[in-house]
């Protein structure tokens, strides 16, 4: 790899959301050069990531899970066939590329997503608890409003 090629690689690795980066990685991933990432190509790329997970002592996950993730991230027009346009329009090209090319960054993305889901769940639970308290307080106020005046006759 030339110095210039290395610089392009670093730029593409650093920010996988730019159009130039998406095009760079798509060319790298399109093993047969036909302009379509097939399940066969993705499986070959994924096997490399499984080997990396093994070396790094990470718990591997199955290819079927990777394909489900791919479907959720990219939502290609044709199931199992990812085109460059699919990647450009999905808004999740970076995580998709990491899933098949950089499992360490993928795991980082996955952990971050988990933290976001946990925070959203905490917020929802807090809102539900607040709502329950507000409902109880409102019910108590209504009950007290109805009691006022009663018993004053004694």
UniProtKB/TrEMBL annotation:
Keyword annotations of the record: Calcium
Gene3D superfamilies referenced in this protein's UniProt entry, alphabetically: EF-hand
Domain called EF-hand: residue spans: 17-52
PROSITE patterns the UniProt entry points to: EF_HAND_1, EF_HAND_2
Molecular function terms, GO-annotated: calcium ion binding; protein phosphatase regulator activity
GO cellular component, as recorded: protein phosphatase type 2A complex
The protein's name in its UniProt record: EF-hand domain-containing protein
